[in-house]
Amino acid sequence: MLRALFISLSKAHWAQRLITQWRFAWKMASRFIAGETVEDAIRAVEQLNAAGILATLDHLGENTDSQAAAEQSTTDILKILDAIHAAGLRSNVSIKLSQLGLVLDSELAYANLVTILERARQVGNFVRVDMEDSSLVGITLELVFRARTAGFDNVGTVIQSYLYRSPEDTRNLAQAGIRVRLVKGAYKEPASVAYPKKADVDAAFNQLVDILLQAEQALDAPGGSANVLFPPLTAVGSHDPLRLKYARESLKKLGLPDQAAEFQFLYGIRRDLQQDLVKAGYPVRVYVPYGTHWYPYFMRRLAERPANVWFFISSFFQK
Ligand SMILES: Cc1cc2nc3c(=O)[nH]c(=O)nc-3n(C[C@H](O)[C@H](O)[C@H](O)COP(=O)(O)OP(=O)(O)OC[C@H]3O[C@@H](n4cnc5c(N)ncnc54)[C@H](O)[C@@H]3O)c2cc1C
Asked: Is residue 44 domain-shared with residue 142, that is, in the same domain?
């Protein structure tokens, strides 16, 4: 119930106004967000890289409601691609199509996506299209496939294990050689489209790991690039130790090298597990969000963990 409440708060403008004015909210959010500026983001990535960890930078933003704002987001993403290149960072970028205008006009979002992919190609980098709520999944995948067919091999996307449709989508993406980050899913979805029970979401996650890793065995499955900006076909995006263990065992069972999959974490979460995997020799990438539009991202992070919510609510009443 708390999860549903915080996910609906993530979309409420009145709550955004109330919460973002409260200084403690930013203090708590900054555990999950690298900062508000490009410089903050670069500093966070430098620290991760120094610890042997790769990154993917997310210039925060979603549900952009004007063409001008969608174009501004596109410009901001081009700047971060240039900044990564100039600083020689081991980081690619993650974006959301709703940030590029998807809820206004899918052609506008596609044009902005192409602009970003072209710049990424010029600087030899990779772009991951994050997955949003189920109303946007079909169109997001359609635009990713369209970009791939147009010759962009530097685009990847995300699959959410809570969706019933995901096994088929995963097979189609793997067949097209489109790199996938597998996650459980962060939105509140109806039982008509997504598993309501955590046990089913976890079982589906394992099944999707197998689909992706079996595709890795195919000769033409894309591996990670030597400069590690391009990830392998399979990225396991989870902080759940049982999901990580399953993926490690599956790699072994299929006779794949440790580098055949990448393990991805959100900034500020389970640093202990990140370090364990680095020590064991697996590629680890951290998703580093930055920018001023941190409110909905922060609300989803609260929703994921009841302990975060209780800490936040009790602090609100103590202010
Ligand atoms: C790199 C990355 C990218 C992602 N991209 C997307 C995306 O594009 N679309 C999308 O829908 N979702 C995305 N997600 C979020 C994902 O869908 C889940 O909501 C989130 O990862 C929590 O699920 P879990 O696999 O960690 O497992 P859970 O079972 O939720 O959590 C397992 C354990 O991880 C820790 N943990 C998990 N979340 C938190 C938190 N917020 N704060 C503190 N500890 C926590 C706790 O110890 C918890 O017990 C992404 C996640 C990652 C790691």
From this structure: yes
Nearest by Cα to 202 from 164, 158, 240: 240
Claim to verify: residue 164 and residue 235 sit in the same structural domain: yes
Polymer length of the chain:
319
For the chain, the average pLDDT equals: 93
Ligand 1 probe mutation, 184, 198, 236, 272, most atoms within 8 A of CB: 184
Cα 259–chain centre separation = 20
Q: 119, 128, 181, 248: which one is catalytic?
A: 181
State whether 230 and 163 are in the same domain.
Answer: yes
Neighbour-count burial of 197, counting CB atoms closer than 10 A to its CB (0-12 exposed, 13-18 middle, 19+ buried): exposed
Residues 179 and 157 in one domain: yes
Q: How far is the CA of 68 from the centre of ligand 1 (A)?
A: 31
- 59-106 pLDDT, tens digit per residue, is 998 889 899 999 999 999 999 999 999 999 999 999 999 999 999 999
Q: What's the pLDDT band for 207 if we cut at 50, 70, 90?
A: very high
**180 shares its domain with 307:** no
pLDDT of residue 318: 59
**Domain with 239 in it: what CATH number?**
3.20.20.220
The angle subtended at Cα 137 by Cα 264 and Cα 305, nearest 5°, is: 45
Instruction: Say yes or no: 18 and 163 in one domain.
Output: no
Confidence bin at 5 (pLDDT 50/70/90) = confident
Q: Please give all residues whose beta carbon lies within 6 A of any atom in ligand 1, as ranges.
A: 130-131, 158, 160, 181, 183-187, 237-240, 264-266, 269-270, 287, 301, 304-305, 308
Instruction: Give, rounded to a whole angstrom, the gap between the first and last alpha carbons of the chain.
Output: 24
What is the per-residue pLDDT across 288-307, written as a single tens digit (0 to 9) for each? Answer: 999 988 998 999 998 888 78
Q: pLDDT at position 222, please?
A: 62
Do 283 and 230 share a domain, yes or no? yes
Residues 207 and 304 in one domain: no
Residue 313: give the domain boundaries: 1-33+298-319
pTM over 0.90: yes
**Cα dihedral 291, 297, 298, 300 in deg (nearest 10):** -170
With a cut of 70, say whether residue 179 has pLDDT above it: yes
- When divided into structural domains, the chain yields a total of 2
Residue nearest to atom 2 of ligand 1 (CA): 237
